[in-house]
Amino acid sequence: MRIGSSAGDGMGRGAPDQIRQDIAEAVEDGQSIFVLPNIFGVDALTMITALAPEHPGIQLGVGVVPTYPRHPMALAQQAMTVQVLTGGRLVLGVGLSHQMVIESMFGMSYAKPVRHMREYLTVLMSLVRTGAVAFSGETVTANGSITIPGYTPFPVVVAALGPKMLELAGTLADGTTTWMCGIDTIRSHIVPSITAAAEAAGREKAPEVQVALPVCVTSDPAGARDRAGAVFAMYGMLPSYRAMLDREGAAGPADVAVVGSEEQVTDTLSSFGDAGATEFVAVNYSDDPDEHARTRAVLRALAASR
């Protein structure tokens, strides 16, 4: 299991200078990937393109770009350009977002989400893999090609949690990226569901399972969990994450945060690899300098051992 990290509190709200510091720490600590959220802060694809020349070697992930507001040809064109400008290091995450975001904030319809994602991925993956597409669907239509000298295909992972979305991710994309999923959910639901879909589709490569969670090495586990509960409270109210928390038997985000001593956090993170995760992306959310440094040290040691 590869080790990576995300920016700041994992919500993409940090200032560009803070994000620059976060990725510098990830590179210094030998991590394999830095994932920048694309929520209501900086535009992640733009930001990682700006940061790429300063930080060679590390993969650059985006988690995740909402599909409804962006036609797949437009996203493909942007992401393919980023892939060239970053030297072939992009990992693109896409997702439906949430009904309240798409309908209340964007004023768009959230109708037929599974059909929408199936058709969206059909178009996007054709462009990513071949540079061309000819498709007419119920929710998406696209006909054309994109040519960018020096372009090479990149992985696309889907924010897939439910059975139907995991089936799409395993069948059409390169894997899934999860959030607010505890280890039992990863082991008993996420990994077997997406793996079965990939095998049924005859995929040659096993799907990627990128797991992201808040992480804190601390001498005050109760306090760290309380802070996680406050920082990530909104995720306990969004239906898709609430379903995963319920599946895990967790009251809220605090219960799935990886919190404890160096040994406890190391053991828990290693267990995610045993459960089938191919990549763990840590959100080092503590603003306490000692906790932040201790968490970095554990992630650094794990990255070095992979």
- The value of Rg in angstroms is 18 Å
Instruction: Give the number of helices.
Output: 12
- The CATH fourth-level homologous superfamily: Luciferase-like domain
Elements, N to C (H/E) = EHEHEHEHHEEEHEHEHHHEHEH
- Structural class, please? alpha/beta
Instruction: Show unreliable segments.
Output: none
Strand order of the largest sheet: 1-2-3-4-7-8-9-11
CATH architecture: Alpha-Beta Barrel
In round numbers, the mean pLDDT is 96
Bulk shape: globular
CATH class: Alpha Beta
User: How many domains in all?
Assistant: 1
Distance from N terminus to C terminus (CA atoms, Å) equals 7 Å
* Beta-strand segment tally: 11
The helix fraction, in percent, is 40-55%
CATH topology: TIM Barrel
The biggest sheet, with number of strands, parallel, antiparallel or mixed sense and barrel status, is: 8 strands, parallel, barrel
How large a portion of the residues is in β-strands, by DSSP E?
15-25%
